[in-house]
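lol ok so funny story. i was supposed to be doing the assay writeup but got distracted and ended up predicting the structure for this chain instead. priorities right. anyway since i did it might as well share w the group, maybe its usefull for someone
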Amino acid sequence: MALINNTIDMPLDELSVGTVFRTGGRTITETDVVNFCALTGNWIEIHSNKHYAEQTRFKERLVQGSLTYSIMTGLLIFGPPIQANYGIDRLRYLHPVHIGDTIYVKAEIIDLEIKDDDFGVIKLQMKALNQDGDLCQISEWRLLMLRKREALEELVNASIPTEKPRAAK
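and the output, tada:
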């Protein structure tokens, strides 16, 4: 049984290769596609022109691959150990995503690389599955992370303000 386990909030040294994260679903809407076209300037007709898209092999408009990827990264919840996006490799679009499809993510840790005493890089194999189980997208995503629990606690403690006492009137 595939339970939802979509939060990566522990430092690198507490993770292990082979760990799988799974998300709940997110239905991609007409509004998502139009807003993404406006935000990115990607008005390619397969995404934005219904009449044109009906003439193609797909017979309807498709969701942008980059929008699908963006939604995938939002379905995973990243805590403060994540410090920076380190890169996306081997990104492939394997099955079209249609407006109204629901995307689920399966992310498996495939490598952990130590950079130095403080930082490391997690490599995740990211898969986007639609509601029918079709593999729509696959890639490898690398993220720079804090390595140690102590560094994570120090960062979080330094970033959360403490309440100031109220001045007496």
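Helices lie at 30-40, 45-48, 50-54, 65-75, 149-159. The radius of gyration is 20 Å.
back to the writeup now i swear
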